[in-house]
């Protein structure tokens, strides 16, 4: 039984390697405008103002004691360079973070894995 399982596994692996490895890659030159498109100050400002329009951002601003309208007015008075830096920060920020309950779940799952897999 063990030998038959090994043979079947090897055959499946060989077949999958043969069928999946025939993809070819093509390389070519692209223009500088496609490699790093320049952002206009208007698009950066629209990104920042669009972010301020989101309900969860407005809720977080209010929780911090900042009026969302005052934040929009502040963005309107910022220079193009400041708006560009802020837009880059928004685009490079992590998408989400783990909450307190998330950490509890991770620790609980790690504890269960340790208890059932390693301890026994």
UniProtKB/TrEMBL annotation:
Keywords: Membrane, Signal, Transmembrane, Transmembrane helix. The keyword Nucleus does not apply. Pfam families: DUF6627. InterPro entries: PA2779-like. The chain crosses the membrane at residues 100-118. Residues 1-27 form the signal peptide. This is PA2779 family protein.
